[in-house]
Amino acid sequence: MRARPTLEKVAARAGVSRATASRVVNGSTRVAPQIRDAVNRAVEELGYVPNQAARSLVTQRADSIALVFPEPATRVFSDDPTFAGIIRGVSMEIEEADKQLVLMLTGMAGGYQRVERYATNGHVDGVVIASMHGTDPLPGILARRGVPVVCSGRPTVPSSLPYVDMDNAGGAERAVRHLMERGRRRIATIAGPQDMIAGIDRLNGYRAVLRDSDRRSIVAVGDFTRESGSSAMRQLLADDPEIDAVFVANDMMALGALPALRQAGRRVPDDVAVVGFDDIPAASYTEPPLSTVRQPTVEMGRRLARMVLDLEEKAQVMLPTELVVRGSTGS
Amino acid sequence: MRARPTLEKVAARAGVSRATASRVVNGSTRVAPQIRDAVNRAVEELGYVPNQAARSLVTQRADSIALVFPEPATRVFSDDPTFAGIIRGVSMEIEEADKQLVLMLTGMAGGYQRVERYATNGHVDGVVIASMHGTDPLPGILARRGVPVVCSGRPTVPSSLPYVDMDNAGGAERAVRHLMERGRRRIATIAGPQDMIAGIDRLNGYRAVLRDSDRRSIVAVGDFTRESGSSAMRQLLADDPEIDAVFVANDMMALGALPALRQAGRRVPDDVAVVGFDDIPAASYTEPPLSTVRQPTVEMGRRLARMVLDLEEKAQVMLPTELVVRGSTGS
DNA sequence: GGGGAGTGTGAGAGCGCTCTCTGGAAGAAT
DNA sequence: ATTCTTCCAGAGAGCGCTCTCACACTCCCC
Rounded CA gap, A198 and A187, in Å? Predict the structure, then answer.
């Protein structure tokens, strides 16, 4: 392999100084056209590509951002297409900005320190944290150290940190109202973990609608896994056999609730209507297909990236969710 | 934010030269114990972290590797947990080696040149390509340019490039034999795209077993999507209504085949047994749960990373697959 | 006790780049 | 014609680090 050319070589070939070559490469306008052309030709001929390390060393910029998946997220990484969507969205924006995406799954012990060390020492220009738990200390630590941080998901404790979140409450409200419009009277919910903002907000949305229509909440709590969906469903049926609808806080739990209903002799949607949340691919393959609330995951990734890259103002943003009606809530 | 300390500062604090400080930081043994301790203390107190850019500049190493998902892979990224598994595996090894993972989804036009430019200019120490199509030119290009490359999936054309592949043929054979052991006589297959090695090898495995037992192949070809699974299933039933088993080349198509069978009045597994391939999470949620062939995706990621990091010899490796028997092939 | 081997430390070059500062040429104003 | 301004190109410093080389020192053997 031939050694890769340096700016020096490009400059020599173009018959200019290194400084001028640098100006051209970096798109300065203050260069005479014929010189610019000469340099560009030399770049082309030699196949020159700037050495990022050298550039970073002097500019103190890294031209890369880190996408961090904390441990709890990593655990469900394989099953949850939300993360794939976020990655895709972030990646698209990063690519357009011609920067690099450094992926960090902090799965192992000490992963946090690793991220902290790495990010606070100028190796990246910013960090996107796909945090599931709103109490995660990492965003705060990094922000205090002066690292640009944007979180996916609103922190549970009030904070001034920028984030992009889904409209979980709104989606839940729409789902529950949809069940009411379908004439359902006893609407239960399988809530998610109450230490995650998605779990909290979706339960709040459910409660808000029921409260407005003077109905009683019927709640069982799961942990977003399929198994917990099954057992929560069984518990709900035991608590109140008259249930005719369930809003399940995520599709995975809904996937567990469906067979539990079937085993209890309930038909879906005739006896019990079911709405999930997330719109994972599997939701359209269930029998009957699952009505659910879709989240703009790719869009979320894009917004996260744009904020951390300062392409748009850092803010606390909520993205709209969308009800997808399928067979599990009747026709 | 206070400026981050340099090696110079550490050396000054420890009362040694920059060279000695560097030696300690990099773990050289040829340093007197008390000096080493002094330097380590200074590192601790100042919170020193080496500047990777400066280090890379002189060592010509990047301490990072790229994980590339070419366009076709990106398209199915969201739906296919295979990629999540590979990412996790690669990430684990990278983390252990204290290097960085640069993720590149070459979704957009020009993505290839971007990877090529980036990788051939010393920005990464190696590239792992999650290539779906065996004819991908990228691995060859990079290898020729002297960049260490390892592919996931065997290239369709013979090549000396290192790769890690799943034992697709073996898995298919085991699946088909399993169907025979269950007493099935007319075993059809829904094959995957024949420009992907997974599609080719799985079909070959199917054919090999049938040939050995002097049976006729009954083949329909899909494109690994759920919809193609449905229509292929309908076609198979039209071609040969006597079919009593189907080996489907991936779970997603199997997910499409199941409702198609149901609509045709066939019970699974009583009338027709079904085996899939991949063991995606949804496979255990179908009714009945899908027998399938599991792939060690995380292990694949680990091996890919270890090879590209030169922690193990670059070779052409095939990982074993495992038959998972569930309800769709009887009890 | 002097020369050689071995060991530990420091001085200094230089990786490839950006960016400030300086200088020279050309044109405008006096 | 002289000075001032404007504009563009080059010289050179220096980002933070590694690594070679030279040097000082200790220890040992003859």
Answer: 20
At A39, which amino acid appears? V
| Strand D nucleotides within 7 Å of a protein CB | 7-12, 14-20
Closest CA to A279 of A140, A174, A135, A163: A174
Mutant choice from B46, B78, B128 vs A, greatest count of A C-beta within 10 A: B78
Cα–Cα distance between A208 and A45 in angstroms, integer?
Answer: 66
**Omega of the bond prior to B269 within 30 degrees of 0, cis?**
yes
Q: Is A265 helix (H, G, I), strand (E, B) or coil?
A: coil
- For residue A2, what is the DSSP state? P
Q: Residue B60: how many CB atoms within 10 A of its CB?
A: 11
pLDDT at residue number B109 = 60
The token pair that represents B52 in the structure block: 């990777």
Residue B15 CA, nucleotide D8 C1', distance (Å): 47
Phi, psi (degrees; rounded to nearest 5) at B156: -70, -30
**How far is residue B244's CA from residue B183's CA, in Å, rounded to a whole number?**
9
The distance of Cα B86 from the centroid of its chain, to the nearest Å, equals 4
pTM attached to this predicted model: 0.89
Measure the CA–CA gap between B240 and A96, rounded to whole angstroms.
51
Element (H, E) at A164: strand A163-166
Would you state the structure tokens that stand for residue A114, as one six-digit string?
């690793």
Of B11, B18, B106, B119, nearest to B66 by C-alpha is: B119
Which among A54, A84, A100 is the nearest to B57, CB-wise? A54
Helix, strand, coil percent values for chain B (each to nearest 5): 45, 15, 40
Pairing of strands A292-294, A322-324: antiparallel
CB contact under 8 A, B120 and A146: no
Asked if residues B262 and B272 have their Cβ atoms less than 8 Å apart, the reply is no
pLDDT digits (tens, 9 = 90+) for B207-266: 999 999 999 999 999 999 889 999 999 999 999 999 999 999 999 999 999 999 999 999
Q: Any residues with CB less than 8 A from the CB of A25 and at least 6 apart, and which?
A: A7, A10, A39, A43, A48, A50
Cα–Cα distance for residue pair B92/B191, rounded to 1 Å: 33
- Two tokens, residue B165: 């592949």
